[in-house]
Amino acid sequence: MKIALDIQNEFDPDYIEAIRQLTGLPILNNSDADQFSHSLCLDESGLSLQRLQSGSGETNQQPTRVDFKDAALQYRLNSFGKQQGLAKAVGLNRHEPMHVLDATAGLGRDAFILASMGCQLTMLEQSSIIYALLQDGFKRAELTDDEELHAILHKMTLHHADARNWFDDIRQGKQPEPDVIYLDPMFPPRHKSASVKKDIALLQDILGYDEDSQDLIASALGCARHRVVVKRLGSKPQKPGKGGIKPGFIVPGKTAHFEVYV
Hints:
Elements: E1 3-7, H1 13-23, E2 38-43, E3 46-51, H2 71-79, H3 85-90, E4 99-102, H4 109-116, E5 120-125, H5 128-142, H6 147-153, E6 156-160, H7 163-171, E7 180-183, H8 198-207, H9 213-220, E8 227-233, E9 249-251, E10 256-261
Parallel strand pairs: 1-2, 4-5, 4-7, 5-6, 7-8
Antiparallel strand pairs: 2-3, 8-10, 9-10
């Protein structure tokens, strides 16, 4: 997998250089485009991630970006409230809004939902490419005149950081202990599925899978005041593998379920 930075319009050279320095990506030229599998594209709509070629050689025309005004995200925001699985897993159906450490931020959607319910969110993202997408999403959202959106974003703080290092800092008293730690790592799929969403598939391309997911969970335990919540795709809970840590309880859902370690 090779990724390049694709500049589609005229932008401030300092801004382009800041993205290039952050991501370490080369600038895409038409002459060498066939050497890259993905692009981080900067155009008038902001930054987006795109698969240039699929396994069959077909170009993927649908980019993925961080968009807090996305219709599906707004539907989640306005339709389910604290009775949705995510809120129950964190404990918002019984407790006041809390400080949540989203240690694997991804595209920031779950963090946004939790912030909309009043939680203070500290978001960590290790990948420089995904972090750049998140930064761009925050920047575009702040430029809108949507005061309700601004109020939610002001509850969210983003850091380019490795979760395990952050957990070590919590143990050493260098970072505050959150009420809840939320994990949505890229677990290796136990069953192949053709219905994997485009955005998730692209993140899998970039991030790969967290083969040490049990170590990540174990590292998080003891760093939160109340609980550690782990999101897993699929409606049916899986038995923990050999040496795996058993959750205290499971919050089921239609497309994902949540393991809760109290």
